[in-house]
Amino acid sequence: MPRSGRRREAPHYPDAADIDLLDVLHALADPTRMTIVQTLSVEPERACGTFPVDVAPSTLSHHFKVLREAGLIRHREEANRRLTTLRAADLEERFPGLLGTVVAAYRNGG
Amino acid sequence: MPRSGRRREAPHYPDAADIDLLDVLHALADPTRMTIVQTLSVEPERACGTFPVDVAPSTLSHHFKVLREAGLIRHREEANRRLTTLRAADLEERFPGLLGTVVAAYRNGG
Fold this sequence. Notes:
By secondary structure, chain A is α+β, with helices and mostly antiparallel strands. Chain A has helices at about 20-30, 30-40, 55-70, 90-95, 100-105; strands at about 45, 75-80, 80-85. The interface of A and B includes residues 22, 26, 29, 96 and 110 of A.
């Protein structure tokens, strides 16, 4: 039984080998999701409520879902917190150089 | 006056400096548009009807518009043909390494 009534289903995480480039590009093509990924590229694990984005919780949940299903992030529970982790190693293995190039492009005024 | 009644407005091309990363990622996050960009990455100028994509002409026009407005391609008229060109130099100047990394990722089974 889920610990929170807000979660309707177990999160789906693609295996590293199944990460799809078009899904990754779609996930990154949004300012809120890009901000989440940028933030994680500096600090690879953060509590979910601490990202510098200004959106409603339900909207943030949607963005996390898109990032999770594209293979960009994982969540894990620790004590009372839900932590978000960037799947940097999986992405680097699947698409060498991609995440770093995109993150640098956005940081340089994308 | 436009030479073809099908064109309702002059195409809009962003200046190289105004190319937006999220627009580029959105434009690339589609199999038809990615195929067009992949094809142009091998052969930088092609006639519009010669891309290896299987979509209706109106759908193809839409995809060209998205690519054009994101700054990925230009069109030019030559004799009776409309040619499509990849803006590889502009993209490289704006986001070094991005296009090459994405194209390589897709070619390697994205």
